[in-house]
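Protocol step 4 of 6.
Sequence for 3-ketoacyl-CoA synthase (Pistacia chinensis) entered exactly as in the expression construct, tag removed. Do not edit the line below.
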Amino acid sequence: MSEPNLNTPLNPPSSTRKLPDFKKSIKLKYVKLGYHYLITHGMYLFLSPLVVLIAAQVSTFSLQDPYDLWEHLQYNLIFVIICSTLLVFLSTLYFLTRPRPVYLVNFSCYKPEESRKCTKKIFMDQSRMTGTFTEENLLFQHKILERSGLGDSTYLPEAVLNIPPNPSMKEARKEAEAVMFGAIDELFAKASVKPKDIGILIVNCSLFNPTPSLSAMVINHYKLRGNIVSYNLGGMGCSAGLISIDLAKNLLQVHPNSYALVISMENITLNWYFGNDRSKLVSNFLFRVGGAAILLSNRYSDRRRSKYRLVHTVRTHKGADDKCFACVTQEEDSEGKIGVSLSRDLMAVAGDALKTNITTLGPLVLPMSEQLLFLATLVGKKLFKMKVKPYIPDFKLAFEHLCIHAGGRAVLDELEKNLQLSDWHMEPSRMTLYRFGNTSSSSLWYELAYSEAKGRIRKGDRTWQIAFGSGFKCNSAVWKALRTINPAKEKSPWMDEIHNFPVEVPRVSNF
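Step 5 output, structure tokens:
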């Protein structure tokens, strides 16, 4: 993909400029690298002289000194007992109160059948043959689809592809079963676990909430045990996948030696919009069939075979603000047809939620060098009224990989610009949007699977997952790789075609 160079100034300098462009100076680059190295390793540099002094002092000890110390302690038995008791007490307290580590054993992403593929031409043909859209809105759909960033290999459910479409509760359950059971079957095979091993079950699907619930459907199909702790999250938007991860993390703190199964998905069948309100039509262009199943564990014995360890989860909710609350709303149009409206304020609201989220996440993950630069500019601006721009931390120093919810091309463009990311960092998100479309809360896992299929995940690498959702919410999760992922041993929806990616995604795709 050809994207504008982030280092290129917006106003190119004139040819008569005499001063050098210090921002492009290679020497300045090494000064910044040296600064980051100095601050990051400052503690080691500070302690090095102290270690040398201690080593020099220890080298002067003789064999008689340890014997004299032992003789001294023999006559201070009470002191020895008190110190030993205190040491045992503090050690016990630490092991009992420290958070249990949460491991991601494995995950799987659902890949629908080839018969469910929907090219852009098929999409437009279907829209025309339904007979419900005006000619103006058909032109609008064609124009938006050209700029959507989606390719010709995304998937739609059978009920939507049929002529005429036949959305029904039966068809919606059929889609949900195919997605959930397909992802779970593959996960159980990859992780070598049995259904009876699952102690915690969390299913999230925003717009489809039948009775019995989706979690009950899973329990019934796999005959999960009777004392399972199950939850069904609805109406929480595209960021509900990370909310489910956060909920599973908290539950694993109080349920020792447990497996948690998280299922993230959305249902298209009953949520396809057949009206002519343009604010509701946009969701038809973006959302496609997809789902993911994730297996988490708090067993220390699973560390060796797990892929990742959960480091942080940060949740931000802006629902107290009316504008944020109403920017994504499911409602009826003037003709009584239900759809999801997207407000014009959506991008501004998402940006504000992201700012709040990374303000909380930054101190947890950024190196000290970046935090000091941010603090210095903040103090200069607030206290000394200096006319300086707020410093935007370089999150590329904190993470090797980013998985940004593939909500749409505009969202990805804004995050790339604001976080100053490279094409390489954006590639998993853009390729997921192109190949699978917006699969709602499961898109983050298609993106992580892409990085694995490309052989990019190395032991110790940190991955940042970011998702947005109605309400309005912005949620983050940080994972650390416990081992290098060998793509030759992986099974994912990308493996059969990963050699075809990345592809060039034109700004306007004519069809």
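Step 6, annotate. The chain is about 45% helix and 15% strand.
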